[in-house]
Design goal:
11 helices, single chain, alpha/beta, about 325 residues, Arginase, Chain A
């Protein structure tokens, strides 16, 4: 199906609460160069425009911060991912914050409107808030709700302005497809830091979460088997990998919201490689590397690069 890989760099960090994630894709490339790897010299590398200048002024949207820019990012993602697929290439995204992943999902569905899409969300966080439930207004906590077309009104705590509602609805309904995925086609891995509103919607929608303890007890390979069984009815699978899914004591704190007791890098790698070997995976995205917060001098990017290198070998073999 795919002739080659195209790396798409998306340096957007407008939905994060801390600064520096926009440098993550380039920190990963720096790690490759440090290791004398030619990985980014043998496949096309495309860098998207961003809207990070919005961070130089106050956002007028309290509960959907910079949602106007995020809509632009969604449209940019669609343009680039559509072109990658038209060239029969596999899109491997290296992104800043996780907020734009909803746009990645939307772009995949727009490229394959007749296909059923499964999502494997490897992350410390559920990212399933909405403007109606968010405690911070930071939209990197909301991408899955845009894909699921969910407001979680039963857990509403915020009075959202008409402008915010208009932009939020535009994000959910982009390309005229809503929802983009079904709850039964979404699997969490390593999610361990959620708010009560998220817990409620995860329970209501019946979303499966493979906690770290379950991965350890069953082994990463067995988790792969179970995920593929659960997503058997899906034509395609998108893997969204937030580096904070990993244990910061083993990697580093070079990410915006590190959470203790995460996956070992080897476990994350095994899960993603196993999924790729199913030949259903149509896109992989790495997010939330933040070298500004890395106490070990770019260690998070180096760990992530080691995994990227092995996944690319699996995709291209």
């Amino acid at each position: 199906m795919y002739k080659d890989i195209t790396f798409l760099l998306n340096p957007s960090e407008i939905t994060a609460g801390t600064r520096g994630a926009s440098l993550g894709p380039f920190a990963l490339i720096t790690a490759a160069r440090k290791n004398r790897s030619t990985l980014f010299g043998t496949s096309p590398v495309v860098c998207m425009d961003d809207c990070n200048s919005l961070l130089d002024k106050e956002t007028e949207f309290k509960f959907a911060k910079n949602s106007d820019g995020l809509l632009t990012i969604f449209k940019e993602l669609d343009k680039h991912i559509s072109e990658i697929y038209s060239n029969c290439h596999f899109p491997f995204l290296l992104s800043g914050d996780h907020g734009s992943a909803g746009g990645t999902i939307a772009a995949i569905r727009n490229a394959f409107p007749a296909k059923r899409l499964g999502v494997v969300w490897i992350d410390a966080h559920g990212d399933i808030h909405s403007p109606y439930t968010t405690p911070s207004g930071n939209m990197h906590g909301m991408p899955l709700s845009t894909a699921l077309n969910e407001d979680n009104i039963p857990c509403k705590v915020n009075e959202v302005s008409s402008e915010e509602k208009m932009l939020w609805d535009a994000l959910k309904n982009i390309h005229g497809i809503a929802p983009k995925i079904s709850p039964e086609d979404l699997v969490f891995v390593s999610v361990r830091d959620t708010e009560e509103q998220e817990d409620a919607i995860i329970q209501r929608l019946g979303i499966k979460n493979y906690e770290v303890s379950e991965v350890r007890n069953k082994t990463a390979n067995q988790v792969v088997v179970e995920i593929l069984q659960k997503l058997e009815g899906c034509d395609l699978i998108y893997i969204s990998f937030d580096v904070d899914s990993m244990d910061p004591q083993v990697t580093s704190h070079g990410t915006g919201t590190p959470v203790e007791n995460g996956l070992f890098p080897e476990e994350a790698e095994t899960i993603m490689k196993g999924l790729l070997e199913s030949n259903k995976v149509c896109c992989v995205e790495f997010v939330e590397i933040n070298p500004c917060l890395d106490e070990k001098k770019n260690e998070m990017a180096e760990v992530a690069f080691s995994i990227v290198e092995k996944l690319v070998a699996t995709i291209t073999k």
